[in-house]
Amino acid sequence: MRKKTFSLCLAISLLASLSLRAEDELPFFRGVSVSADVFGWIYPIFVSDAYYNNEVSLSANLLNRFFPVVETGYGHCNTVGELYGIRYTTAAPYFRVGLDYNLQYKNPSPAGFIFCGVRAGYSRSTYDVSAPPVTDPVSGLAVPFQLSAVPCRALWGEALVGIRTHVWRGFHLGWTIRYKRLFSNCTSQNGNPWFIPGYGVHGTETFGATYQLIWNF
Q1: Is residue 157 part of a domain?
Q2: Looking at the 3D structure of the chain, how many domains does it have?
Q3: Is 2 contained in some domain?
Q4: How far apart are CA 122 and CA 133, in angstroms?
Q5: Residue 3 three-state SS
Q6: Pick from 113, 89, 93: which is nearest to 162 by CA?
Q7: Which residues are within 8 A (CB) of 167 and not within 5 positions of it... i.e. 6 or more apart?
Q8: What is the pLDDT of residues 115-166, one digit of tens each?
Q9: Are 51 and 74 in contact (CB under 8 A)?
């Protein structure tokens, strides 16, 4: 009886040891994923083409827990104010780097997971501003208003939460809600830029969202 009990305990110990070793030997690097933000393509078609961003991203899966991310895109703006007829135009690339954290890494689910993350964003652009001529009350002459290729560099941070769901094989869908905070911005004697590629409409803080198509490799 003692021998059987000892043998059973030894077998359980060996199985536990093998299980722990298998867990320890899980790869640190678990692949990469490429994604495209569909929201940036839908927005100008169904909402407004005055301004929008198109972007793609690349992320790595580390222990199914940490996801370093690089995002790059192109921001567009061509809008005319209804009140004074002022036109603002800009188009430039932008870049973001950051990290996502899987909040459900302890209880992994094949259906997907909830995550949070941070980003640092940077954009270098130029913008043009024009308006209808203004009549000088003294001379009666029409004075044009035109600003061309005004340089702008902007740095901002983002905090986000999101969901990633599995659809088919390596194909996933992802949603994020982002809080953005402007750290540094270009200023000129004529004021601040109205739209910053990658950030959005100018302001100390703003919100954004993405809807991504994701493919895991």
Answers
A1: yes
A2: 1
A3: no
A4: 34
A5: helix
A6: 113
A7: 173
A8: 999 999 999 999 999 988 877 777 778 778 888 999 999 999 999 999 999 9
A9: no
17: three-class secondary structure by DSSP: helix
Query: For residue 135, what is the domain's CATH number?
Result: 2.40.160.20
- β-partners of residue 146 are 130
E strands of the chain, at which residues?
29-37, 51-62, 66-80, 87-102, 112-135, 142-168, 171-184, 195-196, 200-201, 205-216
Which CA distances in Å does 75 have to 29, 39, 47, 110? 32, 13, 16, 34
Inside any domain, residue 106: yes
Task: Please report whether residue 209 resides in a domain.
Answer: yes
Residue type, 96: R
Partner residues linked to 41 by β-bridges? none
Domain that holds residue 128: 28-216
pTM value?
A: 0.82
From the list 125, 131, 123, 128, the residue with the least C-alpha distance to 149 is 128
